[in-house]
Write a structure and sequence with these properties.
Layout lengths: L6 E4 L5 H12 L3 E6 L2 H11 L2 E4 L5 H15 L4 E4 L13 H29 L2 E6 L12 H21 L4 E6 L7 H6 L5 H5 L4 H11 L6 E2 L4 H11 L1 H15 L7
Parallel strand pairs: 1-2, 1-4, 2-3, 4-5, 5-6, 6-7
The protein binds nicotinamide-adenine-dinucleotide.
The site of nicotinamide-adenine-dinucleotide (NAD) has 31 residues, from α1, β2, α4 and α6.
């Protein structure tokens, strides 16, 4: 896509990956609406990238609709929507329903609302692009993070469905699926799941660079950690072996000394 002059929304852009995306896209000449739940951090990023701050909660359909409308009103277009806001919810099936619900709303419904309010205008003009920040957790699995993993699989499935349904109508949907990225979110979750996440973590600026480069070729899967492609293939072609190795990882992390 042509970035100079493009009208772009980035959600959850007050911190981490969203902030890095806003900087990278602005450096390429895009006009950015910077959303975050936290008004002060949205304002700080907007000021840094010369964009427009728009505080709002992406789990609230009214806020999502207002954000989409603001971009059309202020920029006269909405070319790229980076649905990046999300929540890391650790736990297992024993984790309370409120946490499961919160993961569902933050990681899935936020993107359902985005697509709902983006698609009518995009379908009318025959063009639009959704970059969905999912996670490698939405393609594989992560110890100790059931609500996050399950909801991110649904985010991934939603993006697949949108692409499968609307690709012929000019709608490009892409998923950004990194493993660990050095952001405040990683600081919160890494101690609760795999030390692997921290060991292989990369900087948000690298994630943003890979994502913005991938806008040029429309590929669905954007993998800042290239090894994820290999594990995803193994999951599909040798599912039982892949699951056994994941079980081994879970056991090791639980201190059970797996030899799998
Ligand atoms: N950090 C990682 O290791 C990692 C890896 C893979 C995927 N991700 C995904 O990347 C995305 C960004 O995470 P990050 O690591 O940059 O986290 P982060 O905590 O640094 O930033 C997330 C930002 O989103 C905002 N936010 C949260 N809920 C929101 C809501 N409902 N509406 C609007 N804004 C909201 C927060 O205020 C925060 O500023 C998330 O979807 C996350 O699941 C992160």
């Amino acid at each position: 896509m042509t970035l100079p002059g493009a009208a772009v929304v980035v959600t959850g852009a007050g911190s981490g990956i969203g902030r890095a995306l806003a900087h990278r896209l602005a450096a390429a000449g895009a006009r950015i609406v910077v959303n975050d739940l936290d008004a002060a951090s949205a304002a700080a990023t907007a000021q840094a990238v010369g964009g427009l701050a728009a505080a709002g909660d992406m789990t609230d359909p009214g806020d999502v609709q207002a954000l989409v409308q603001l971009c059309w009103d202020e920029f006269g277009a909405l070319d790229l929507f980076c649905a990046n806001a999300g929540e890391s919810v650790p736990g297992s099936v024993a984790t309370g329903d409120a946490s499961w619900q919160s993961a569902w709303e933050a990681n899935v419904m936020s993107q359902v609302y985005a697509a709902r309010y983006l698609l009518p205008a995009w379908l009318e003009r025959g063009r639009g692009r959704l970059l969905s920040t999912v996670s490698a957790a939405g393609m594989l699995t992560v110890p100790g993070m059931a609500p996050y993993v399950v909801s991110k699989h649904a985010t991934f499935a939603l993006a697949e469905w949108l692409r499968a349904t609307h690709a012929h109508e000019g709608i490009v949907v892409q998923v950004l699926c990194p493993m660990g990225v050095r952001t405040p979110m990683l600081d919160r979750v890494a101690p609760l799941c795999s030390p692997m996440l921290e060991q292989s973590a990369i900087e948000p600026e690298l994630v943003a660079r890979v994502a913005v480069e991938a806008l040029a070729d429309d590929r669905f899967l954007i993998l800042p950690h290239p090894e994820v492609a290999e594990w995803y293939a193994a999951r599909g072609s040798a599912t039982d072996e892949w699951l056994a190795s994941m079980n081994g990882l879970h056991q090791q992390l639980a201190g059970l000394g797996s030899t799998t």
